[in-house]
Design goal:
The structure is a single chain. This protein is of the alpha/beta class. The chain has a single domain, classed as Nucleotidyltransferase, domain 5 (2-Layer Sandwich), CATH 3.30.420. The chain contains nine helices and five strands, in the order ααβββαααβαβααα. Strands 3-2-1-4-5 form a five-stranded mixed beta sheet, sandwiched between helices. Strand 2 and strand 3 form a beta hairpin. Helix 8 packs across helix 9. The longest helix is centred in the C-terminal third of the chain and has 19 residues. It is globular. The N and C termini lie close together (8 Å). 33% of the residues are buried. The mean pLDDT is 88.
């Protein structure tokens, strides 16, 4: 884990030296939390995207939701949700899932403005997601288009945490058991509307705290024990 973390920091510094002035350089100028930090002392940003599809190269981020965790408390006042005005008409099957219509997204903000605000919120924090591939790929690809390079960011993935926990049991489980809302049911967490970026970010934050509660003994786990 330490060698991977040093890779994160080394890459952050290399990118910082090359980044053009602006939001990405400002984000990269803030060091990541130390991997030896206890999780209850680590600033975390629970993040979720709704997208027009699953391919970061051909699809777009449609909405962004995030919320901060500090000292194992979810700071509701930090909640942020923003729809992005994407190019082109939305597919009907996509609208059925996320309930964002063409009229709604036409009143959204531009991607550059939303990503700038997101990078400001991410600075100095660890990102928390459920199934990291979506947020990681879309954010890196979008930043590459906007700023000419993709950022590096440390990630905690609640899907990975749950899979490691379930792998330690003798009972079999299915991939469906690793879905966000199925995992929440196991902890008797409340049901929220799915496929809304902010409610999914909040749902991920609550699931994370429930998963960490199982890992805690006398002291809070260290960041290095859960980072990807």
């Amino acid at each position: 884990m330490f060698s991977q973390w040093f890779g994160y920091e080394a890459k952050r510094k290399r990118l910082l030296a090359k980044a053009p002035p602006g939001p990405l350089k400002e984000y990269l100028s803030v060091p990541f939390p130390d991997p030896a930090t206890r999780l209850n002392q680590t600033p975390i940003l629970a993040l979720d995207f709704e997208t027009t599809g699953l391919d970061a190269k051909t699809d777009q981020i449609l909405s962004v939701g995030h919320i901060t965790i500090e000292s194992f408390e979810i700071l509701l006042a930090s909640a942020y949700h923003q729809i992005i005005c994407t190019r082109g008409d939305l597919k009907e099957e996509s609208v059925v899932i996320h309930q964002i219509t063409d009229d709604t997204k036409s009143s959204g903000q531009g991607a550059e403005e939303v990503i700038e605000k997101l990078l400001q919120a991410m600075a100095g924090k660890v990102i928390l997601v459920h199934f990291a591939q979506i947020e990681k790929n879309f954010l890196q690809y979008t930043c590459k288009k906007l700023y000419g390079m993709a950022p590096v960011f440390p990630i905690i993935d609640t899907l990975v945490l749950a899979r490691k926990r379930l792998d330690q049991r003798t009972a079999l489980y299915s991939p469906n058991d690793l879905r966000l809302f199925n995992l929440r049911e196991n902890f008797q967490l409340p049901r929220y509307r799915a496929h809304n970026a902010l409610s999914d970010a909040l749902a991920t934050a609550e699931l994370f705290l429930a998963e960490i509660e199982l890992k805690q003994q006398m002291k809070s786990p260290r960041l290095k024990s859960v980072i990807l």
